[in-house]
C-alpha cells in the first residue's frame, strides 16, 4: 500500500467518523458547537477540572475555553465551585442537565461506533485498535525523542 493510499484512507475515515458523529449528535437533539461538546466532555471525564486544566488537556487557548465554559454555564450544563486547593481557580462539574446531554452524546458515539463497525468481526476491531494505537504511539514517541 502506498503512502498516498494510506493517507487518503485515513483522511476519508476521519471525515466519515466526524460526519457520522455529527449526524448522531443532531439525531439526539444536542445543539452545541464542537468546542462546547469537547469542553463539556472535558469537565465530565476529568474530576477536579478547572479552566486551565481543560485548556491544557485540549491544547487550546485558555480564552477560547473560557468562552466555551461561559456558554456551558449559561446553558446550565456545568457549574463552578470554589477550589479548596487553589483560591485563584474554580472546580467545574456537570449539572443534572449536563449529565443528560452527556448521556445523549454517549448514545451518539455508540450509534456512530455501530455504523462504522457493523460489518467487522471482533478480531478485526481489535486489530484496528492495535494498529491505530501503534500509529498514535509512534507519533507520540517521536515527539519526545525529537526534542
What would you note in describing this structure?
This is HTH marR-type domain-containing protein. By secondary structure, this protein is mainly α. Helices cover 71% and strands 7% of the residues. The chain starts with a helix and ends with a helix. The mean pLDDT is 90.
Helices and strands, with pairings:
Blueprint: H1 3-27, H2 34-45, H3 51-58, H4 62-74, E1 78-82, E2 90-94, H5 96-117, H6 122-146
Helix pairs in contact: 1-5, 2-4, 2-5, 3-4
Beta-strand portion reads 5-15%
Domain count: 1
Looking at the structure, the CATH topology is Arc Repressor Mutant, subunit A
Number of strands: 2
Annotation field: number of helices: 6
On the 0-100 scale, what is the average pLDDT? Answer: 90
Which tags fit this structure?
147 residues, mainly alpha, Arc Repressor Mutant, subunit A, two-stranded antiparallel ribbon, 71% helix, 7% strand, globular
At a glance:
The chain is mainly alpha-helical and about 150 residues long.
Amino acid at each position: 500500500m502506498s503512502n498516498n493510499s494510506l493517507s487518503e484512507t485515513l483522511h476519508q475515515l476521519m471525515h466519515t467518523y466526524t460526519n457520522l458523529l455529527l449526524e448522531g449528535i443532531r439525531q439526539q437533539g444536542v445543539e452545541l458547537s464542537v468546542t462546547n461538546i469537547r469542553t463539556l466532555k472535558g469537565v465530565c471525564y476529568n474530576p477536579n477540572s478547572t479552566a486551565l486544566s481543560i485548556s491544557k488537556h485540549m491544547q487550546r487557548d485558555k480564552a477560547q475555553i473560557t468562552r466555551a465554559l461561559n456558554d456551558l454555564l449559561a446553558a446550565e450544563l456545568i457549574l463552578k465551585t470554589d477550589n479548596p486547593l487553589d483560591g485563584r481557580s474554580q472546580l467545574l462539574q456537570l449539572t443534572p442537565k449536563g449529565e443528560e446531554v452527556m448521556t445523549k452524546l454517549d448514545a451518539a458515539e455508540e450509534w456512530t461506533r455501530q455504523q462504522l463497525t457493523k460489518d467487522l468481526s471482533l478480531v478485526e476491531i481489535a486489530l484496528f485498535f492495535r494498529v491505530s494505537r501503534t500509529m498514535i504511539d509512534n507519533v507520540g514517541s517521536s515527539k519526545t525523542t525529537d526534542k
